[in-house]
Amino acid sequence: MRTVGAVAVPGALRAQMMVPPVHPSIRGDRSVAEEPLPEAELWLLLGPAVRESPVAKRLARDFAAAFGSRFAVVSTDRVLLGVTGGKLTLHDLAGRPITPPRAAVVRLAMTPLSTDREITLLRQLQAMGTQLINPPEAILTCVNKFWQLQALAGAGLPVPDTRTYTDTRPDLAVAAGIPEPCVVKAVRGSGGHQVFLARDAAMVADVQGCLRPDVPFLFQRYVRHSHGRDLRVIVVEGRAVAVGLRSSANGLMQSNVSLGGTVEPCPGRFPVAEQLAVRAAEQVGLVLAGVDLLFEEDGAFTLCEVNANVRWGARVTQVTDALIAACASRLT
C-alpha cells in the first residue's frame, strides 16, 4: 500500500483541515509527482480535506491488511483526466497512464465539494468501469439538504415540513410563511454547523441579514420531542450495521459529536428506525450512509438527514468490516 499526495493551504486553514503542509511538487521537489501511482484493483480515494482524518487512516490500515497489494490509497490531486482518440483516460502527474481500479471507496469533504473537480473525477472513473462507494449522483443528492428532501419525500418517506428559496431574498421567503418555531440550516453544511433554532418568523427576519448569501437556507419544522437527541444509523449495502443514540451537550438542539455530543450504541432497540434508515439510503443511492432520524412524540421517526461522508469511532469496527465485504464482492 502507498499513501500519496498533499496540497498547499494556509497555516490556519491547514490546521483545521488536518492535511499535510505543502505538496512537494509545489515546493519544487518533484519526487512525489514523478513517483508512479501504484497499480491496484481497489482504491481508497481521498480528497484533500479528509486525507489525515481518523476514519481515512483506519480504513487505509484495515484495507491494506485485508487486500494487500490489490489496494492503494490515492489522493484526488494525483490524478489527471483526459480524452484521447475518443476514449477516456487517466494519467498521473508525470503523464503516465493509470489503469482505473475495479472499485473505489470515496472519502470527500461534503461542504466544499465541487462538481467541477471531485465530482468530475468520480464521473470519469464511473464511466471507465470503476464501481464507486459512493457514486457521484448519490453524493450530490446528499450534499444539498433540500435535494435529499426531494428524493425522500418523493418516495413517501417521512421528512419535516420545510421551506426554502432560490434567487429571492431570505426575508421575502420568510414573509411568505415558514414553520414556527423552525430550525434554520444552510443547504450545505456538516457537523451541526450553520444550524440554529428560531422561535418564530420574526426572529428569523431579525437575523436574516446574517445568513450566508452564497447558499440558500432551509426553514424546517422543529421536532420538539427530539431536542438534543437523535438516532444515527450507519447503513452499508442495504443493512444497518451500527446504531447509536446521540445526545447533545449543554442543552444544545444539535447532538453532533463534533459539537460535544455523546453516542450510546443501541443496535436493535429501534428496529423501525433501522428499517427506515435502510430505505432512505437506498432511495438516495448510497452504499455507505449515515442516516439521522428524529424522535416524534407519538413514537414514530422522521428523517433528518442522510450523510454520504459518514464518520464513525475506532470501536465501531463492524462498519469497516461491512465495507471490506462490500469491496471484496466487487473484486470477485
Give the arrangement of secondary structure elements.
Layout: H1 11-17, H2 24-27, H3 31-34, E1 42-46, H4 54-67, E2 71-75, E3 80-84, E4 87-91, E5 103-107, H5 118-127, E6 131-133, H6 136-143, H7 145-154, E7 162-163, H8 170-175, E8 182-186, E9 195-198, H9 201-207, E10 217-221, E11 229-236, E12 239-247, E13 262-265, H10 271-284, E14 288-295, E15 301-307, H11 317-331
Parallel strand pairs: 1-2, 1-5, 5-6
Antiparallel strand pairs: 3-4, 7-10, 8-9, 8-10, 11-12, 11-14, 12-13, 14-15
Helix pairs in contact: 6-7
Summarize the structure in words:
- With 332 residues, this protein is an alpha+beta fold.
- The protein has three domains: 11-133, Rossmann fold (3-Layer(aba) Sandwich), CATH 3.40.50; 151-157 and 225-312, D-amino Acid Aminotransferase, Chain A, domain 1; 171-221, no CATH class.
- Helices cover 30% and strands 24% of the residues.
- The protein contains eleven helices and 15 strands.
- The strands form four sheets. The protein has a five-stranded antiparallel beta sheet. A four-stranded parallel beta sheet has the order 2-1-5-6, sandwiched between helices. Strands 7-10-8-9 form a four-stranded antiparallel beta sheet.
- A hairpin with an 8-residue loop joins strand 8 and strand 9 (195-198).
- Residues 2-29 have low confidence and may be disordered.
Helical run tally? 11
CATH topology grouping of the largest domain: Rossmann fold
What ranges have pLDDT less than 50 throughout 5 or more consecutive residues? 2-29
Rg on CA atoms, Å: 21 Å
- How many strand segments? 15
Helix/strand order, N-terminal first = HHHEHEEEEHEHHEHEEHEEEEHEEH
Q: Which class best fits the helix and strand makeup?
A: alpha+beta
Shape annotation: globular
Distance between the termini: 20 Å
Which CATH class of the largest domain is shown?
Alpha Beta
